[in-house]
Design a protein that fits this description.
single chain; alpha+beta; six-stranded mixed sheet; 14 strands
Length: about 325
């Protein structure tokens, strides 16, 4: 059994972490849009897949006198989730604690610990976003022959409208549609001559996000993704890339995801959907450092092959 088994809930750092998670709204937003946290009662179970148009057909709800109600049930074509344990830890060396001082109620030591936990949460949020985007892009094939927005004769709005129409037809709804677009793709869109020509007057800098929502076939929730990751290891020159580089994703997603709604992807997690259960702390047996860790469970799954459209922008 590892020494982490002696870790106990640190109420003070947990309270700090809960507040800091609110400050990470932008970093978490991308992952929550694409694969919202979906609480499940246990680490394994079955979820409803919406991979064919029959999933969206209305039911005949009539019932004969004395008859049974129409049953909506999962089938053999549905899938299972299996939430795997996740954990990250940060350590505070005793030398750092001594350097922080012990006066004024050991405020310096507490600020040191909070700074370390903040870095831990930042890393967890970025890592989860990267893993969600990786799963999404691996599962969704770009629409063929679309997204060449460097061509001045191609109208990006027409292409987005066509995909919106197809998406709303497949999902049976023109509400709860979201556009998640990489900042580089957004730059190509807003400065495109055909997009500028659609707006009133002359706009040297291109359209705004709100104007884009008004130009599309029907209103959508527009999110511009700009999160960056460094793909180089320690000791190597930085190699920074945008997490969702040169992509535009149109997707149907309802608020408060459950096992039975047709969102395209979900992050199944045991419990109430919190990204972690709290900060736990322990002291090294040799007394040279203390560890602070967070842990949770997760399984990122595609839950509807019909509810997302991908355009790779060039």
């Amino acid at each position: 059994m590892g020494i982490e088994s002696s870790a106990t809930l640190n109420y003070q750092l947990t309270t700090f972490a809960q507040g800091h998670m609110n400050d990470l709204a932008d970093a978490r937003a991308l992952a929550e849009r694409l694969a919202p946290s979906t609480p499940v009662p246990g680490s394994t179970g079955q979820f409803k897949k919406f991979n064919d148009k029959n999933s969206f057909l209305p039911e005949d709800t009539s019932r004969a006198l004395g008859g049974d109600p129409k049953l909506i049930a999962t089938s053999a074509s549905d899938d299972t989730y299996s939430c795997k344990p996740q954990a990250l830890e940060v350590r505070v060396d005793q030398a750092e604690i001594d350097a922080a001082g012990s006066g004024a109620g050991a405020l310096g030591q507490q600020l040191l610990r909070e700074g370390k936990v903040a870095a831990l949460l930042n890393k967890a949020a970025l890592s989860h976003s990267v893993q969600v985007v990786t799963a999404v892009l691996a599962a969704v094939t770009p629409q063929p022959s679309l997204g060449v927005w460097s061509d001045p004769d191609i109208d990006p709005i027409d292409q987005l409208d066509a995909q919106l129409l197809a998406l709303s037809t497949d999902c049976g709804s023109a509400t709860n549609i979201k556009l998640t677009i990489d900042v580089g793709a957004w730059s190509a869109l807003r400065s495109h001559p055909k997009v500028k020509a659609r707006s009133n007057g002359v706009q040297v800098g291109g359209i705004t996000r709100d104007q884009l929502a008004g130009l599309l076939l029907f209103p959508v929730d527009v999110f511009i993704a700009s999160i960056v990751k460094d793909t180089a290891g320690f000791g190597i020159a930085p190699s920074k890339q945008r997490v969702i580089a040169s992509e535009a994703l149109l997707h149907y997603s309802v608020p408060n995801a459950t096992l039975y709604d047709p969102s395209p992807f979900k992050t199944f997690t045991v419990g109430m959907g919190s990204p972690f259960s709290g900060v736990r702390s322990y002291q090294a047996p040799n007394g040279l450092w203390e560890g602070h860790l967070i842990d949770w469970s997760r399984d990122i799954k595609q839950t509807s092959a019909l509810a997302m459209r991908r355009l790779s922008i060039s």
